Every structure is written in structure tokens, then in C-alpha cells.
Protein 1
Amino acid sequence: MVIFAKRVAHLVNVSAVADPDGASVVYSVTGALFFASSNDLVGRFDYSGDPDRVIIALTAGHIWDASSVAALDAIETKYAKRGKTVEIIGLNQPSAKIHENLSGELTSH
């Protein structure tokens, strides 16, 4: 199981597309978000360089556990400290339920 976790931890992809007017950026996150991949996720965003509105699209991603929710909370906190807002969109139903139940309840990174 440990070997499997190490192998799939790096299968999360994050790509950013800035809005042409420069007012927002959309980060598309694909892959399985779980304890082995969530720490890496926090470091994949440009907190100081991004515009004031950040959208995280998880349409092709899936939240598997509490550590993923904590990572998303940490990302939101890092942006909020810079006066920026984050909107998380595209969660499938199971991911949305986990996120709704745990967001704000966990200690951030």
C-alpha cells in the first residue's frame, strides 16, 4: 500500500489559465487528492503572483480524505492572507460532501 501511495501521489496535475483581462486565474486540478498527494498540492499555486480572484476547478479531480480538505483550506488561507478570494468549483457529489463536512474543521498546513 505504501508503494502504491507513493506512485499515485504524483499523478495530480495542476495547470493555471489566466483570464485575458487579468482579473482571475483558473487552476484545473486533475487526479486523486488524498494524504499522499495533498502536501504537494499546496505548493502548486502562485499565491503572490495571482490576481485577486482564484478559481480552483476540480471537475477532473476527486477528494478522498480529510488531508485533501485540509490542503484546500490551507490554499484558501494563504490566498486570504494576501486579500485574495478562492472559489472551488466542479466537485463531484462524493467530493463535495467530504469538502462540505470537513472544510474549516481541520487544522491547516
Protein 2
Amino acid sequence: MIINSTRFGTIEADDDKIITFDEGLPGFSSLREFLLIEGDYALTRREGVFWWLQSVEDAEVAFALLNVPAFMSGYNPNISNETLNGLGDYECAGDFLTLNIAVIPGDITRMRVNLRAPVVINSLTRKGRQVIIQDGRYEVRHLVFDELRKLRQVV
């Protein structure tokens, strides 16, 4: 499959790499198919911190994602079994990838991530959903630059 992207140019991807969001994403309900791309210019040498979710249907839509548990050990959103079951069969919690949408403004020190609405992907079924959790411990606009900078110093 050939995917056109204004951010990444032309991407060739196997059909089995496409993530399907049956309900779309909030604000983008008409877009259902996305390619998950691991970032190659992360702030750290550790793999899996930065990701992109590129729409297959709209070349201009791509979301920056962060693997928050990779640098915030206390982040553990409570996602219901009903939600997980809605993404298809799975063997264990490790079959799910949980990422969070990030906003990266011109002033990178103001980078923030939405901790209340993680994107959950079943790696076995390639189905995903953005889940809105009601947990007062987590912010919608959590600043992350300092935490990422600390991670870089450790690596």
C-alpha cells in the first residue's frame, strides 16, 4: 500500500501494518485507517519514545505520539476490560500499546501531552481507540520537556 503524507512524503507499507480505528479519533471521526510510525529523531537514543500516527485517508493528518510509560514510571491509566475487549481478542495486557497524543509547539520547552486520553492499540488485531479516562491524577496538557530531558541525561 502506498500512503501519501505531507509530513513524511510517500510511504510504502504492508496492509497488515495499518491500524483501524472503528470510531475514528475525536474530531477526526471520518478517518479510520492509520499507519503507526516509530520516530527516528527522538530526544533520546532509547527506542519507542516518539511515534507518529499517520492517516492513510488524509495526507495532511498525522499525530505526534509519546510512549509516556517509557519516561514516566507512575503513568498507569485505568482502562476498562470492556474497552480492551472492544479491540478484539488478546492474550495479555502486553498485547496493547498505549501512546499519548502530544503537541509540539515552536518553543519545544512547552511540549505537552494529553494524559487523560491515551490511544490504545491491540497489537494482535491492529485495532485502536482513543480512550477518555476520568482520573484526576492526569492532566490534559501535561508539560513533558523536562522529563524527556532527564531521560536523555540518563541514556
Protein 3
Amino acid sequence: MIVRVVLPPHLRTLAHVSGEVKLEVAGRVTQRSVLDALEARYPMLHGTIRDQATQQRRAFLRIFACEEDVSHEAPDAPLPQAIATGAEPLLIVGAMAGG
């Protein structure tokens, strides 16, 4: 499957890409499989989206699939068919914080 991923600007800069990224994902399309494929293709992103030791999503990043926040869903839960087929992109969004 070819999955489309939109990265936040700071990660696009780090990965030296512009626009969305297209990744080939083997097997079930889940958050884990997409992030594994993303880190394999762009090793400089390793540890930026997930903690290197725990594999937990970084606190100030959110993941959206078909306009739904899937950040807190199980990493091995299947993503919607529209994401798996490439009809819709998976969005990785940087959260805003401050006072």
C-alpha cells in the first residue's frame, strides 16, 4: 500500500522534503507500521515523532486520520481504509503550547 503522510514544517525541514511524503507500507496499515516505514525511509526522523526507547508518541505531536485525532488509539489498530489506500493523507501535526 502507498500511504500519504503530511509532516509538520520542522520535520519536513529535517527530512529535506517538501509537501507530503508517499510511503510503501507492507501488511496492515497502522500508526506503528506507517511510522516504522517513515523512520526507515528518513532515518533522521528516528526519535522525533516517537521516543526512541519507549516508542511512545511525543507529547507535542498529534496524528490525524480522516479528520479524527487518532493519537491516543492503540498503535497497532488499523487506520481507516481511506488512509490505507492513499485516498486521504495521514497528518502529523505539531501541537501548540504556551501561556
Protein 4
Amino acid sequence: MMSLAECPTTRFFSELGTLLPRPRAILAVSAHWETDVPAASVSTQPETIHDFYGFPEPLYQLRYPAPGAPDVARRAAALIDAAGLGPTALGERGLDHGAWTPLRFMYPAHDIPVTQLALQSQRGARHHYAIGRALAPLADEGVLILGSGGISHNLREWRTVAQGAPPAWMTDFVAWVRDRIEAGDHAALIDYVRQAPHAARNHPTDEHFLPLFVALGAAGDAGRITHELRGETDRAMSFDGFVLARA
């Protein structure tokens, strides 16, 4: 719904589009594409996927007609395979709302080529961190690696938590994650299921948290935060953002 109204999160995205160096292409890793093995889209003109139901009609009219980036998809696949994390499947797929929601504010002219990379949620944080490490050369080649998910994402709780102050089980988890990112403590983050407070309650399934690990891996151990959004909360969901630059 943030796509239909200005809010702190969309303003953050809009500002990033003017502050970041303009990428030659974008590789988006969204919580909304999951596969059994690594997969990348070689679509030359990806469609706008509306992968949600029961929302206002204007949301379904939104389009993000960016060109595809099949060369980046093939390069990503080669890097993943060379790291022993593949084999990576190549196919045609559009952009889901995890990709086009931030991008339509960051780059409203939709003139930067975009491709998507799938998650393998059954393989956990360590696998996705390794994927990010494998993809690090792309960041040095002018490709923006965009991880799109949620720092806290529990839809069942969202339906029952009242509006107002966010619950402590969420704020404690969000604070722990922020602190670990700022400290560069990637080992603790990878082990978040055991170490973070209320991890299972914030992520009963972890697909919305896994894109973060791809970004962390690509930034590397010496990666640093250059921009940060201490985001809005919506009952049992929290919207936060981090720009991680390679050292």
C-alpha cells in the first residue's frame, strides 16, 4: 500500500535514487520469488507482477516497465555456479512487488535495466550470505544489488496486534538486528535464529529476512552503512532500510 501514498519509507527510496551513484543495472532479490535452486531472470522486458490479492484497484494499475538485464542474470549465474552454489536456472520472469515497489520511487523513469534473483528459503541465512559473497564482483561492476524483504514480518500477528505502540518482541528484535549490522557482526546475524531475541516470532518463516543476507554478503566483512532508514512500524511489521557500501 505504500506505493499509493507518500510516507517516510517511500521518501527514503526517493532520496536514495538521487544520492546513490547511478547503477548500470539492478539485481533485485525479493522475498516474493522462491525456488528450489538458484534462479535468475533473463527476461528482456519483464512484466509487472501483481502478486497479491484483495487490495484497492489502483494498486493493480501500477506498472514498472523497466528493461530487463539478461546479461547481468547470466553473469550472476556464472558467479554463483563458480562458487559451487548452483547450478543456477535461467528463465523468464517479471518483477514482483518486492522489486518494483522500491524501484518505482528510486528510479521513477524506469530506464535502468533490472533482473531478479530467486531465494531458496529452505537453505537459510548462511546459503544466502554465500550467494551474496559470490555476487560481490557485480557490485564492483556498477550493478546495484537490492535486497527487498522486511526486518520484521509476521502476518498472523499483524492481524491481531492493535494499532499503536509496536510490541516489545518486535522492537527488541529490530534493535538487535540494527546493532549487529552497524557493528559488522555478520556471524551473529547469520546465527540470528539462535541469538536474536524473539527471532521466530518476528519471522515464523524467514523468506522476508533472507534478502538482507545477500546484501550483507555482497558488501563483505568491511562493508559499511552509508544511509539508513529507521523505519515505520505497522503493528507487527517494521520497514527499515540500509545501504551497504563495499570497502
